[in-house]
Structures are given as structure tokens and as C-alpha cells.
Amino acid sequence: NDDVEYLLTKDNLPFEPNWKLPKKLRDELKDDSITWLVYINPPFATAQVGGAKGESKKGVSKTKVEVLMDNENVGHVKRELFAQFMFRLT
What we know:
This protein is an all-alpha fold. The chain has two domains: about 40 residues, no CATH class; about 50 residues, no CATH class. The protein has three helices and no strands.
């Protein structure tokens, strides 16, 4: 969001009507007693055929995490790197 930078300013400009972030979220972001955990996923990639040309990224999902997911019978979602990322967090 393009108004996040204002959270770090002393005066918290622009004035209230111009904010795009909800007030509750702004207040919580400023609250030092709250610990924030931000998940940043890897770039999107999947081993299945996709795109306009039908090309695939063969082998992109062949990771140790995919093997673990396969052991849990999660299905085709194991091919998604984002799903592998989230699986590692659980």
C-alpha cells in the first residue's frame, strides 16, 4: 500500500481522510506490544503444464518437502512451491 511509509513519520501525515490503511490496522502496526509475523512466499511456480504455450517447469517441485507432502497424501497441491512453503510452516 502506498501510505505505509506514513506510519514511520512523526506527524502521521497525510491527515485522517487521506489514509488508505484502516485505522485499526494502523494503530496495531504502531503498537509495540504486538509482534508481527509476515510470510513471504517464493515466486510462483508449478510443475504442471501452464501458460499460453503450454510449457512446464519440469522438476521445479522436486524437493524434500514434496516427498513429505506426498507421504501425507496431500494430492496435486504438492507441485505448488507456495503450498510447499506453507506446508513447511505447519
